[in-house]
């Protein structure tokens, strides 16, 4: 792959193969597990967590596999992919979003005629958090979320968060990816832009990755509750249920079964229920 390449939804979205070998199956699986955990991929959705769970599955380790293994163990195999980040990881993402994860300068966190705290809005998957950043010194910051304060300190030439050493990361203008647990992507939310978008078109369910629409489970005008399944998207040889992030009414269904979609494509739009 080269910079600027586009992974089309019309082909298998495989970007790389990872192969390990050793004198025994057990040793090869240990190498594979280590290699998967060492992978650092940002900017796209991967199945690293699923593969990590698969190579650790007792039946797979024993070589006792059949075509029904994934279907039987889907919940177990996807547990790693949906495990919520710990507070200190949210704190590292917020500090990165504020541009303060480099080597401290004497004026880091110093502001004149400005509030003593800075609010940073982050989103990981469907979870959103507001983080309040308070700079105590160039080498120490307090990050508060949901009443819990994480202390970030620069010591021994690296940042730590409540004693946890910072993990490696990648950052763009709109996203921070922390390479922990096969990769955790945090979107940087502009509160004003988000309010403007919701007022204009209402919440829109978008495709998290390229894939094919297998089924649509709602219709125009139907009332839905937070957590209801809206549709099934097949991607990376697995079926993914996309759920409503809030209560509402289906205002638009923008796709149909069998349609190929790209990451970020609008799928379903929800409006608030009247009254």
Please outline the major beta sheet. Answer: 9 strands, antiparallel
Distance between the termini: 51 Å
- The CATH class of the largest domain turns out to be Alpha Beta
Which structural category fits the helices and strands? alpha+beta
Helical segment count: 8
What is the number of beta strands?
A: 17
User: The CATH topology of the largest domain, please?
Assistant: Glycoprotein, Type 4 Pilin
Chart the SSEs and their pairings.
Blueprint: H1 25-38, H2 48-56, H3 58-62, H4 69-72, H5 74-77, H6 79-82, H7 87-97, E1 118-124, E2 127-137, E3 140-145, E4 148-155, E5 158-161, E6 164-165, E7 169-171, E8 175-178, E9 184-189, H8 191-201, E10 204-206, E11 211-216, E12 223-224, E13 229-235, E14 238-243, E15 248-253, E16 260-261, E17 266-271
Antiparallel strand pairs: 1-2, 1-9, 2-3, 3-4, 4-5, 5-6, 7-8, 8-9, 10-17, 11-13, 11-16, 12-15, 13-14, 15-17
Helix pairs in contact: 1-2
Structure keywords:
four-stranded antiparallel sheet; 3 domains; 8 helices; single chain; nine-stranded antiparallel sheet; Glycoprotein, Type 4 Pilin
Walk me through what this model shows.
- With 275 residues, this protein is an alpha+beta fold.
- It folds into 3 domains: 83 residues, no CATH class; 103 residues, 2-Layer Sandwich (Glycoprotein, Type 4 Pilin), CATH 3.30.700; 74 residues, Beta Barrel (OB fold (Dihydrolipoamide Acetyltransferase, E2P)), CATH 2.40.50.
- Helices cover 23% and strands 32% of the residues.
- It is built from 8 helices and 17 strands.
- The protein has a 9-stranded antiparallel beta sheet with strand order 6-5-4-3-2-1-9-8-7. Strands 10-17-15-12 form a 4-stranded antiparallel beta sheet, with no helix packed on it.
- Helix 1 packs antiparallel against helix 2.
- About 3% of the residues have low confidence.
